Amino acid sequence: MQRVLITGAAKGIGRGVAEAFAAQGAKLVLMDVDAAGLEGAAAALAGKAAAVEICVGSVASLADCNRAAALAQSRFGGLDVLSHNAGIQTYGTVESTDEALWDRTLDVNLKGAFLVSKACMPMIRASRGNVVHISSVQGVASQAGVTAYSVSKHGLIGLVRSMAVDYAPYGVRVNGIAPGSVDTPLLRNAVDAAPDPAAVYAEIDGMHPLGRMAAPSEIASVVVFLASDNASFITGEVVRVDGGMRARLGGSPKTQ
Ligand SMILES: NC(=O)c1ccc[n+]([C@@H]2O[C@H](COP(=O)([O-])OP(=O)(O)OC[C@H]3O[C@@H](n4cnc5c(N)ncnc54)[C@H](O)[C@@H]3O)[C@@H](O)[C@H]2O)c1
Predict the structure, then answer these.
(1) Can you give the pLDDT at residue 249?
(2) Catalytic residue among 149, 167, 170, 201
(3) Ligand 1 within 6 A of 156 CB?
(4) Which residue's alpha carbon is at the smallest distance from atom 23 of ligand 1?
(5) For ligand 1, what atom is nearest to the CA of residue 12?
(6) Which of 16, 97, 161, 196 is the most exposed place for a label (fewest CB within 10 A)?
(7) With a 6 A CB cut-off, is 191 part of the ligand 1 pocket?
């Protein structure tokens, strides 16, 4: 039975990951800044997961990350899996991103991944467990106007690789996922604020050769796979789960 700490567990992908691990009978520590969302997630998962603990806190705070890790230690005696999903979407070019937005984005998306890893690695090392970080397709390429976000997601892939190398001698695996568009509150909040949301949803669907965005469960199932013994020789990898988005060259000139 795996003991799993899941960040960003109140909503979206993290919530989907929590549901997927609960279906495996795992013991869960759910961490998020959204207290009400965490309560709701924990209530929904009670009776499915073997146990659910919640920690209201920010991954951008080492003290909060240490509190979440301590909960896993005190309630479950350790940790087998860190599933890090917490993240924020921000927008701007180098010129239009002010210093505070840059700092906030990097603090949550990149430093947060470092801090929660720092808090959890002693337990993960002890259990010869593993880590799955959620990056993005914006960690391997970039759309327009997402400088800080894209940089944070590129950095996260560097963290995956450096952790994989450092912890392989301990039998610990560290992997990442680069999702395409996923139907979550993060995406819906951004699209619904646009002047013509329907057109944006259609454009997003069309960016993926499969013609649609993903459900959170389609990312969560890959997290569960990477965290399982079925992935026992996979480490330092970042799996694209993007409906073929990065497989396609841009443009389709009608030459035939
Ligand atoms: N939705 C997408 O299309 C998409 C695509 C690629 C990658 N991602 C990445 O997947 C991850 C999850 O995104 P999502 O779409 O589920 O977002 P979401 O906003 O729906 O959920 C993210 C959760 O993280 C929590 N969170 C935010 N800041 C936090 C902090 N400092 N500490 C702890 N929790 C915090 C939020 O409260 C929320 O519950 C993010 O890292 C995001 O960048 C999302």
Answers:
(1) 86
(2) 149
(3) no
(4) 8
(5) 16
(6) 196
(7) no
Q: What's the length of the chain?
A: 256
Residue 107 belongs to domain with CATH number: 3.40.50.720
Whether 252 is in a domain gets the answer no
**pLDDT value, residue 250:** 78
Domains identified in the chain, total number = 1
Atom 1, ligand 1: which residue's CA is nearest?
182
254 found inside a domain? no
177: in domain = yes
149 catalytically annotated: yes
Please tell me if the CB atom of residue 34 comes closer than 6 angstroms to any atom of ligand 1: yes
Contacts 24+ apart (CB under 8 A), 154-158: 155/106, 155/109, 155/110, 156/109, 156/110, 156/113, 157/238
Q: What confidence score (pLDDT) does residue 104 get?
A: 98
Contact 133, 156 (CB under 8 A): yes
Cα distances from 159 to residues 79, 111, 119, 172, in angstroms, run 20, 10, 15, 14
Range of the domain at 146: 3-246
| pTM for this prediction | 0.97
139 within ligand 1 shell (Cβ under 6 A)? no
- What is the reported pLDDT for 45? 97
How sure is the predictor about 251, in pLDDT bands with cuts at 50, 70 and 90? confident
